[in-house]
Amino acid sequence: MEGKKKRDLCERTFQFALRIVNLCQGLSKKPGVEQILAKQLLRSGTSVGANIEEGQAAQSKPDFVSKYSTARKEARETKYWLCLLAESGIVSHDQTKELLAECNELIAILTTIIKKVQSTIDEGRKKG
Predict the structure, then answer these.
(1) Per CATH, the architecture of 2-127 is what?
(2) Contact (Cβ atoms closer than 8 angstroms) between residue 51 and residue 69
(3) Alpha-carbon dihedral 103, 109, 115, 119, rounded to 10 degrees
(4) Phi-psi region at 58: left, alpha or beta (left = phi > 0; alpha = psi -120 to 50)
(5) How far is residue 25's CA from residue 65's CA, in Å, rounded to a whole number?
(6) Which backbone phi and psi does 8 adopt, to 5 degrees?
(7) Where are the domains of the chain?
(8) Taking 90 as the threshold, does the pLDDT of residue 63 lie above it?
(9) How do residues 94-112 score in pLDDT, each as one tens digit?
(10) Cβ proximity of 29 and 87 under 8 Å
(11) For residues 84 and 36, is the Cβ–Cβ distance under 8 A?
């Protein structure tokens, strides 16, 4: 079951990245600020899933925590860019609403996973 959950998260973040790519494709066609912000959003939004995929091949629990922590940081950055795009009026709040909701859920999921794995690392250190 644990393997299925990991695969579900990988698929979920891949689908999130696809949605980010689609949003950025429209923004990148516009000159100036829109294009610059699209690049920022594209980098962080697609990095979430990439870091989770890297975490699947982690060499140790601390390495896993590191990759997932980076994914969480990228998700938080993605949230920032989405909020900035919406609040500045570059894209409508309707365009970012679902992406922001998914981003918040991913941050919460990653936080839970990181805490759980970190606690097993800490327990192992206490025993060892």
Answers:
(1) Up-down Bundle (1.20)
(2) no
(3) -160
(4) beta
(5) 32
(6) -60, -40
(7) 2-127
(8) yes
(9) 999 999 999 999 999 999 9
(10) no
(11) no
Say if residues 55 and 71 touch (Cβ distance below 8 Å): yes
At 72, list the tokens. Answer: 């969480």
Q: How far apart are CA 46 and CA 29, in angstroms?
A: 19
Tell me whether residue 79 is exposed, middle or buried, using C-beta atoms within 10 angstroms of its C-beta: 0 to 12, 13 to 18, 19 or more.
buried
Nearest residue to 105 (alpha-carbon basis) of 25, 38, 8: 8
Alpha-carbon dihedral of residues 53, 3, 98, 46, nearest 10 degrees?
0
So what's the pLDDT on residue 1?
40
For 118, the 3-state DSSP assignment is helix
Helices (H), the chain: 2-28, 33-56, 61-87, 93-127
The residues, any chain, with a CB within 8 Å of residue 120's CB and separated by 6 or more, are: 61
- Cα distance between residue 61 and residue 38, in whole Å: 34
pTM to 2 decimal places: 0.90
